[in-house]
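Here is a typical sample entry:
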Amino acid sequence: MTSLPGRLVLIGHPVSHSLSPTFQNAALRHAGLPLTYEALDVPPGRLERAAAWLRTSNAAGNVTLPYKEAFLASCARLSPIAERVGAVNTFWCEDGALVGDNTDVGGFEEAIVRAFGSDRRWPRVALIGAGGAAAAVLAGAERWFGTEVRLWSRTAGRAESLARRFARICTTVPTVHDALEGADLVVNATPLGLAPDDALPVPIQDLPPRAAVYDLVVRRGDTAWVRAARGAGHPAADGLGMLVAQGALSFERWFGQAPDRDAMWSALRP
C-alpha cells in the first residue's frame, strides 16, 4: 500500500484471537504509525454490511473465524495465494475496493520451523478439519518436499471438496485413526480448544509415538491438547507462533515494511 489506511481492524464473530490487538498495537507504536488496531465483532448475517463499512472507511486489517472463506465474495481482487486457499485473512482497500490476501500460509510455515526446527521433514501429516485454516495448512504443505497429507473431518463433504483441490498431496480417510496412522506431524485445524471445556481434537493415547503436534488454536498458557501431548512426550506447540507470524506478514502488506517482531513478542509476555 502507498498510503495509510483509515482504520485497522480485526473482524470476526466472536473475535477469536483476542491477543492480536496487543501485538499489532505494539508493532504500530514501535514503527511510529498513527493508527490503532481494533477488534470488531461482526454478528451472523452482517458480513456484507461490515464489508461496505470497511470500503467506505478505507480500512485494512484481518479476518478471523468464522468469516475467512465468506469474505472472498466481498473482495474485488484476490492475491494468488488467497485464491489457492479459498480464504482471506488479510485485506486492504485500493481505489475504494477490497483486496484480499492470505498470510496464514506463510505464518503456518514459519511457525512449524519455529516450533520444531528447520531440519525436520514431514513425510506424512495428519490434518484434522476442513475449513479455511485447513486449506492454509495444505497450501503450505504442498510446498514441502515429499509430504503426504491424510485429511479427516467430521464434515465428510467439506473434506472431500478440500482434498480434491489439493489432490497432489492430500487424501481423505474415513476415521481419525486412519489419519493418524504413521503420522510424523498431527495438525488440529478445527476450533476445538477455543473453549476450556472442549474435548481434545485427538485423544493423546491415539497419537503415533514420535509424532509432533501442532494446534492452530491459541490460548494463553497453551491449549489443553498441547499440554497433554507434551506431558506424554510429544513435541508440541499451539498456534501463537502462527498468529504472530501471519500478523507480521499482514503488517508488511499494509505498510510495505516489516514490523519489529521482538516488540510483537514482548507485548505478549506477562
Remarks:
- The first helix runs from residue 20 to 31.
- The two ends are 33 Å apart (CA to CA).
- The chain has a mean pLDDT of 94.
- The first strand starts at residue 7 and ends at 12.
